[in-house]
Write a structure and sequence with these properties.
Layout lengths: L9 H4 L29 E2 L35 H7 L4 E2 L5 E6 L9 E5 L2 E7 L5 E5 L13 E3 L2 E3 L6 E2 L6 E3 L19 E5 L2 E5 L23 E9 L3 H8 L5 H4 L15 E9 L2 E8 L2 E11 L3 E9 L5 E14 L2 E10 L11 H28 L16 H12 L33
Length: 447
Amino acid sequence: MALTSQSPFTHLFHKHPPPHISSFPLKPISTTTSTKPKPKPTLSLKPNLLRRRAVAEDVGAETSKGGEDHQNVLLSSPGVEEAEAGEGEEEYDWREEWYPLYLTKEVPDDAPLGLTVFDKQIVLYKDGDGVLRCHEDRCPHRLAKLSEGQIVDGRLECLYHGWQFQGESGQCVKIPQLPPEAKIPRSACLKSYHVKDSQGVVWVWMSESTSPNHSKLPFFEHYARPNFQDLSTIHELPYDYSILLENLMDPAHVPISHDRTDWTAKREDAQPLLFNVTERTPRGFAGQWGRSRNPSLMNTLRFSAPCVLQNNLEFVDKKGVQQYFSALFLCRPAGQGRSMLIVRFGASTRSPVVNLFPKWYFHQNAGKVFEQDMGFLSSQNELLVKSKVPTGELYLNLRSSDTWVAEYRKWMDRCPLWWSTRPPGPSRQQPQRCPRRAGREPCTRRT
């Protein structure tokens, strides 16, 4: 699966989709980081000049001629002077970010939902007022998973001994085995996380030491447009979050890996691609890409760290009407070798035929696409975990197909995956631990 103008559902949004629009499933990428441990949890974006990395340039698709130097075909690594001139020092903390948890409409009304972010187990549910609550997924009594419990009178109940917890504060309000005159210990409290429902997606702020930064909460302008319609699916995948993002950024694999999977991907459409990187920031990159056989039709791709990848396409249809198509991928690093993906395909208009299909059809079709990539990505994940060198020394990135992959790896080299216990993906960085505080952490209130 990839961000593409040729998605498994493109044909359902447009009555007469342009024949030149091709599938663009994006493939995931694995992270590459230094083997040297960082002295503190906040990560520096200053590049490791001693490390060879694949760096994309603003280039169009170039074909090699007989005897031509390989640099016309392969993306090259920057020199020391180039890296020093082009890279500033920034700090990036993976915990001080919003992560997509689930589609709001899919959160059960009467049961808790167990999820993970960087192997941190959390439980999401709706309280008696229908307000979303999120806590660490373990009971302070005997560490049983609260997601195995139930909702009783609007409160989260541990199904092991019946302890019940109030949603807003996380404080235990009922212990069946406690004498009537006894007070519930103040330490019988859950660690809580801030959650936010935004544009149909539940997001969680994972930092325990800083208040939520709402300016970092992703907002998608096209989903706020009147009459904008979308189809959404959720997928759990058995490979690293960075592998997933790399896959989703790879339009070149779609015609080959997903040949005839739907009405758009065709093997004979494999061709050199055109790329133009227009923006690089500490929080990602953006640019345009298209196919060499139809250079007038250009997609806009944007990666916004750490979780958002979107591909937008605007064109004028046969009737002269401006059409807008969006493929949005929200990627959650669930844990070591595990990721979760929310896929949203949207458009300004869609064919009435879409109403004839049941919801499960779209999920099944998307699942088929991910299954086709499963073997490649799982083996890639395994090799990168075992490897002792960065992807710049392993990959042969082509100018005419792999610019986004190289750009993403460049960003990951500056911001290697890091969490409080261990690297959550095929990362070479050694684990760092958060400083321990005396006693139990105070309960955190969500807003």
